[in-house]
């Protein structure tokens, strides 16, 4: 033990995390003891007995056994270790980590961390990238931390490991950590599965939406245009039936955002929302709008939202970019179009849009995220028979205390909203749902109180929108779109030929004796990679088209290098990875070319009509 060692560790810890770890002296509850092999262990008084966090005999061998049990990890695996103790197992694990491995160490007891800092030099760990040493038992803090490390590419590549008896000594926080990890994994699994399921539809929507997109407006045209105007985000939760009529009092004293499901209920109550928000790429987005599909209320949507919704809509449209399509958007439109953090629900997206427009406060209505009174949706918003999964129900904190029942999908919406609110400092969020789950970070008021308190000024939204549209009017030449489509198709033809040549060469290498294959056999494939990289550099739209292929290949654990692989194993993996890569390119190219051909052959008349800037109003 060394005071200078402790100070050295604390100094680096403070530099990285901006807080100090106290130097706790030995107490009756926590005591350092020498082991049989002249190392240290920690004796902890737990309830009415004493426990040792490490072996009393050989904590180093114990650490080696801990690491030996870890199986099936690769250089992209995220390690989350619950329990640091003095850190023997962490030091052992670090011997095997690749620089790409993320490492989160959770030590619930700051006093234990203090002891670890006095025994070993942790500056190397604290200087390591992709590493976080977490101390304490704050749920929101661990939630935010996991959000920084876990994403769609690694959510299914996590090793959550518990050291010693930490799950029994600190069971409550263990349960919190486990649930937060499970929720993030669930969130990103849903997101990944949605992307996989809808990817072809995203592409189809994008090209089918082009004829309107090039003539309509960017979300950037609305940025900051409604500073300090109250925004009402209307959702279809069961509590909406209680207070929907109160929204009549908003009129032009606030902005009302509606999704497709709530539009009919609002119109039936003589409430005209100022914006419709539609994000879903699938046919469900069109089905919920059936009764009012040809409305002329301004539509805020994304470039890959359902094409039937966009084609039927008769009013002005404002498009949000998707991160996977920024190159294609610029290639076709030359417009500045921002990406917004849209979350996983229309309410999530509407909150982000309202913030982008400058609205304040942002008021939630019908955002139950729970089975209020045993219902799934408000009666006024139900469409057909609604089925629920009885096995997917659990309790969360209610808006007025107590517990309410929710499900995993709603909980992901809730998690996203709370994180969004946390990062939106300086803005006021009000939950005027009057039922459902508690949304942390919101002020709780009734809808009537919210309107009376914050809707003090009137303004002409329609006139404001006319001014915005007039200031950003642009003429788009229709022949230009056809030329760009043909040029893109020519590039895709080249990409297809490159893939054909690569697959032919790979087939020859694959049928060689694996023992005779060397790194030299893979060098010619760099030429193909360089050709593709040049095409992506010359036209970022090509990069967008291939992004899903890259994501699928790079997140596939079968193709990710494992620690201590032999050269032969690496080479075999490289060959298989490249084969799948070029196969997927060919499939993608064929699909995109089909959408382009359909657009050129079947929608040219539509392009001419929209090029004349004709709007059909109901």
3D architecture notes:
- By secondary structure, this protein is of the alpha/beta class.
- Helices cover about 45% and strands about 10% of the residues.
- It has 22 helices and 18 strands.
- It has helices at about 5-15, 60-70, 90-95, 110-120, 125, 140-150, 165-170, 170-215, 240-245, 260-270, 285, 305-310, 325-335, 345-355, 410-420, 445-455, 460-470, 480-510, 525-540, 540-555, 565-600, 605-610, and strands spanning about 30-35, 40-45, 50, 80, 100-105, 130-135, 160, 215-220, 230-235, 255-260, 275-280, 300, 315-320, 360-365, 395, 405, 430, 445.
- It has a nine-stranded parallel β-sheet. The chain has a four-stranded parallel β-sheet with strand order 6-5-4-7.
- Helix 6 (about 140-150) packs across helix 8 (about 170-215) and helix 18 runs antiparallel to helix 19 (about 525-540).
- The model is unreliable at about 610-618 (pLDDT under 50).
Describe the protein's topology.
Layout: H1 3-17, E1 30-34, E2 40-46, E3 49-52, H2 59-68, E4 78-82, H3 88-94, E5 102-107, H4 110-119, H5 123-127, E6 131-135, H6 139-149, E7 158-162, H7 166-169, H8 171-213, E8 217-218, E9 231-234, H9 240-243, E10 255-258, H10 260-268, E11 275-278, H11 284-287, E12 299-302, H12 307-312, E13 317-320, H13 326-333, H14 346-357, E14 362-365, E15 394-397, E16 403-406, H15 408-422, E17 429-431, E18 443-444, H16 447-454, H17 461-471, H18 478-510, H19 525-538, H20 540-554, H21 567-602, H22 604-611
Parallel strand pairs: 4-5, 4-7, 5-6, 8-13, 9-10, 9-14, 10-11, 11-12, 12-13, 14-17, 17-18
Antiparallel strand pairs: 1-2, 2-3, 15-16
């Amino acid at each position: 033990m060394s005071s200078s060692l402790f100070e050295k560790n604390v100094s680096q810890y403070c530099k990285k995390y901006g807080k100090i770890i106290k130097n706790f002296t030995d107490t009756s509850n926590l005591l350092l003891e020498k082991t049989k092999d002249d190392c240290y262990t920690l004796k902890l008084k737990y309830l009415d007995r004493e426990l040792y966090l490490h072996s009393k005999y050989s904590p180093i061998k114990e650490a080696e056994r801990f690491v030996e049990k870890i199986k099936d990890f690769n250089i992209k695996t995220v390690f989350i270790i619950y329990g640091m103790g003095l850190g023997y197992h962490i030091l052992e694990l670090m011997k095997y980590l690749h620089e790409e491995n993320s490492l989160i160490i959770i030590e619930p007891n700051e006093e234990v961390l203090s002891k670890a800092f006095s025994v070993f030099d942790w500056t190397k760990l604290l200087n390591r990238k992709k590493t976080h040493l977490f101390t304490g038992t704050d749920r929101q803090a661990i939630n935010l931390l996991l959000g920084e490390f876990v994403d769609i590419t690694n959510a299914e590549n996590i090793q959550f490991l518990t050291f010693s008896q930490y799950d029994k000594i600190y069971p409550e926080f263990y349960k919190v950590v486990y649930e937060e990890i499970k929720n993030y994994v669930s969130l990103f699994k849903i997101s990944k599965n949605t992307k996989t399921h809808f990817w072809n539809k995203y592409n189809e929507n994008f090209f089918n939406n082009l004829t309107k997109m090039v003539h309509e407006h960017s979300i950037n045209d609305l940025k900051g245009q409604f500073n300090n105007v109250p925004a009402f985000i209307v959702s279809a939760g069961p509590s909406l039936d209680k207070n929907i009529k109160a929204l009549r009092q908003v009129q032009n004293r606030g902005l009302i955002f509606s999704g497709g499901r709530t539009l009919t209920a609002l119109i039936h109550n003589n409430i005209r929302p100022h914006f419709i928000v539609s994000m879903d790429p699938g046919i469900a987005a069109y089905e919920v709008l059936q009764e009012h599909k040809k409305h002329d209320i301004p539509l805020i949507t994304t470039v890959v939202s359902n094409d039937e919704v966009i084609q039927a809509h008769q009013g002005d449209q404002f498009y949000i970019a998707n991160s996977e399509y920024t190159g294609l958007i610029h290639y076709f439109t030359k417009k500045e179009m921002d990406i917004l953090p849209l979350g996983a629900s229309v309410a999530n997206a509407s909150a982000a849009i309202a913030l982008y427009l400058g609205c304040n406060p942002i008021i939630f209505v019908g955002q139950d995220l729970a089975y209020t009174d045993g219902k799934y949706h408000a009666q006024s918003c139900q469409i057909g028979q609604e089925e629920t999964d009885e096995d997917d129900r659990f309790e969360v904190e209610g808006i007025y205390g107590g517990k309410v029942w929710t499900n995993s999908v709603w909980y992901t919406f809730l998690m996203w909203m709370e994180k969004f609110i946390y990062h939106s400092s300086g803005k006021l969020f009000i939950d005027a749902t009057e039922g459902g789950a508690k949304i942390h970070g919101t002020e709780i008021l009734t809808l009537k109180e919210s309107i009376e308190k914050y809707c003090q000024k009137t303004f002409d939204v329609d006139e404001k929108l006319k001014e915005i549209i007039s200031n950003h009017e642009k003429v788009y030449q229709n022949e230009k779109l056809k030329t760009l489509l043909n040029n893109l198709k020519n590039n895709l033809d080249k990409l297809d030929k490159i893939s054909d040549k690569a697959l032919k060469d790979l087939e020859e290498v694959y049928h060689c004796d694996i023992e005779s294959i060397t790194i030299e056999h893979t060098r010619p494939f760099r030429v193909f990679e360089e050709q593709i990289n040049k095409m992506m550099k010359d036209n970022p739209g090509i990069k967008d088209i291939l992004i899903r292929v890259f994501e699928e290949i790079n997140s596939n654990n079968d193709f990710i290098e494992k620690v201590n692989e032999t050269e032969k194993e690496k080479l075999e993996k490289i060959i298989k990875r490249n084969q799948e890569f070029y196969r997927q390119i060919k499939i993608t190219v064929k699909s995109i070319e089909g959408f382009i051909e359909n657009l050129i052959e079947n929608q040219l008349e539509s392009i001419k009509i929209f090029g004349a800037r004709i709007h059909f109003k109901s």
